[in-house]
From TrEMBL:
Domain NTR per the UniProt entry, residue ranges: 159-283
GO molecular function list: Wnt-protein binding
Keywords: Developmental protein, Differentiation, Disulfide bond, Secreted, Signal, Wnt signaling pathway
UniProt lineage: Eukaryota, Metazoa, Chordata, Craniata, Vertebrata
Protein name: Secreted frizzled-related protein 5-like
Native species: Stegastes partitus (bicolor damselfish)
Ranges for domain FZ: 22-140
Signal peptide: 1-18
């Protein structure tokens, strides 16, 4: 089981603690090491927070880091605001919780990412626990109400087949039968603790562009690695970079799925020949 989700769900498996709005609270500066809630528009937070954590160094900061891998997927542009309103509530004269509508909006986009790892949306983040829109609460921002409609999103999927030293015809057939084909160098960072980090090194080069957008494709593939972390772990060894030819399709629901993966080693002349022949190839 992934370290991140094991820790997170141990922390959030129980329902929200009964938070007494009349209890004594204190305001503290959000520490620099609390990266998850950096640049959220305010510098002081209340303790205890809405998850019942009162120890800044022992609970709040380390448990906030549990959410970093989810936020890195970009599952929703207001996911950080939602989570930080609970982890690091703003220090004002009144308590400001997230509105139920904000929770529902974030859950719709981010719950599938958790489900991809085999976990449901945590009970502690049950949207029915939060106040309705007419109460004083943090509501969804209007500019995010139509979050990236029309752009492909990475699918949670079974891992694509990885084919070593393919024949030229195999590669050309993959180009023909899928919507897009790109080359990308994947790198796995060495992390001493926690989940491994996967990044796309350098540019993503198109062989067949299909429905992908040049300015969005690198970010889209990066999100795919973060969501399909188990697949990414099987592709790249720690501390190593590997160039791949990635082919796939955009499904009817707008989700991008990788279908066939070809590691491109220097000795793989068939892949080089296929990419050169593709410009004049008839499927």
């Amino acid at each position: 089981m992934a370290v991140f989700f094991a820790v997170t769900f141990l922390a959030l498996a129980c329902p929200l603690l009964a938070f007494d709005m009349g209890q004594s609270t204190r305001c503290v500066t959000i520490p620099n090491q609390m990266k998850v809630c950096k640049d959220i528009g305010y510098s002081e937070m209340r303790l205890p927070n809405f998850l019942g954590h009162s120890n800044l160094e022992g609970e709040v900061v380390p448990r906030s880091e549990d959410w970093r891998p989810l936020l890195q997927t970009g599952c929703h542009p207001q996911a950080q605001a939602f989570l930080c309103s609970l982890i690091a509530p703003v220090c004002l004269d009144t308590f400001i919780q997230p509105c139920r509508s904000l929770c529902l909006t974030v859950r719709q986009s981010c719950a599938p990412v958790l489900a991809c790892q085999g976990h449901p949306w945590p009970e502690a983040l049950d949207c029915d626990r939060f106040p309705a829109e007419e109460d004083m609460c943090l509501s969804p921002h209007a500019k995010f109400s139509h979050f990236a409609k029309g752009l492909p999103k990475p699918a949670c999927q079974h891992c694509p087949s990885v084919e070593e030293a393919p024949a030229m015809k195999t590669v050309l057939d993959a180009f023909c039968h899928h919507h897009f084909a790109v080359t990308a160098k994947l790198h796995r960072l060495r992390i001493s603790t926690g989940e491994p980090e996967f990044v796309i090194e350098g540019r993503v080069e198109f062989i067949r562009q299909g429905p992908l957008l040049p300015y969005d494709t690198r970010h889209l593939l990066q999100q795919w690695l973060l969501i399909n972390r188990a697949c990414a772990s099987g592709l790249v060894r720690p501390g190593r970079s590997q160039l791949y030819v990635l082919t796939g399709s955009v499904q009817p629901d707008g989700k991008l799925a990788l279908t066939r993966v070809f590691p491109w080693h220097r000795k793989d002349t068939n892949i080089a020949l296929a990419t050169r022949k593709w410009k004049h190839h008839r499927c």
